[in-house]
Amino acid sequence: MTVMTPDQMEAALRHIGETRYHHLHPFHQMLHSGECDKDQVRAWALNRFCYQRIIPLKDATVLARMDDTVLRRVWRQRIVDHDGEIGDAPEGGLRRWLALTDGLGLDRDYVTSMEGALPAVRFACDAYIAYVRDRTLLEAVASSLTEMFSPMIIKARVSGMLKHYDFINEDVLRYFRNRLTEAPRDADFALEYVKKHATTPETQAAALKALEFKCAMLWTQLDAIQHVYVNGAPAPGAWRPGEALVAEAA
């Protein structure tokens, strides 16, 4: 096995996104094309909160493993982006996601408790935390490179949901507006780190596998949502459409 040049490594990483990122998942295609009913959109937002919640936890785990001061200074911005600052402003990504679930009529305490989230979604999120904790720092950073592909899916999501769902508006989708600038910034930094530090066949293969893992983790969440809320196989304890723990939409 030969060593790839940095450009070849980047091309290999991007190929993973083109073939494995969850923009290709059938549920996302339903969501963006207006084929979901309101309860299916609610189920997606409710379960996706589990992932949104662990993003700053994941980044704090990665941060704790960094010995380099400059590297930590850059990486900690990710935590601020999602947790926000003390007080009301600037609003972080977690609060922006809760604006979406609020707008869909889901009770906020119920969402944040994650009691109604699917077991497979919770397990996938736990697995990601364990991955960045237990693998090499290079693999942990490489796993974040799904951010290279997120602007593509965000643009399709925002335009599609605004077009097809009368219960969606620009304000409840404000989480995605911010990610259009945050994600490319983060991805550019992580990509340069991976290209700089993946310099052997072994480390390059590990970085590629890390990105494959993250893509699979995101895909698994949608598999669970589609199985339950499209195919009709609810897990015991999971939220069911029409349950009383949905607040009246404002």
TrEMBL record:
Transmembrane segments: none annotated. Pfam families: TENA_THI-4. Pathway: Cofactor biosynthesis; pyrroloquinoline quinone biosynthesis. Its EC number is 1.3.3.11. GO terms for molecular function: pyrroloquinoline-quinone synthase activity. InterPro entries: Haem_Oase-like_multi-hlx, PqqC, PqqC-like, Thiaminase-2/PQQC. Keywords: Oxidoreductase, PQQ biosynthesis. The keyword NAD does not apply. Residues 11-223 form the Thiaminase-2/PQQC domain. It is an enzyme of class 1 (oxidoreductase). GO terms for biological process: pyrroloquinoline quinone biosynthetic process. Ring cyclization and eight-electron oxidation of 3a-(2-amino-2-carboxyethyl)-4,5-dioxo-4,5,6,7,8,9-hexahydroquinoline-7,9-dicarboxylic-acid to PQQ. Belongs to the PqqC family. This is Pyrroloquinoline-quinone synthase. It comes from Rubrimonas cliftonensis. The lineage of its organism: Bacteria, Pseudomonadati, Pseudomonadota, Alphaproteobacteria, Rhodobacterales.
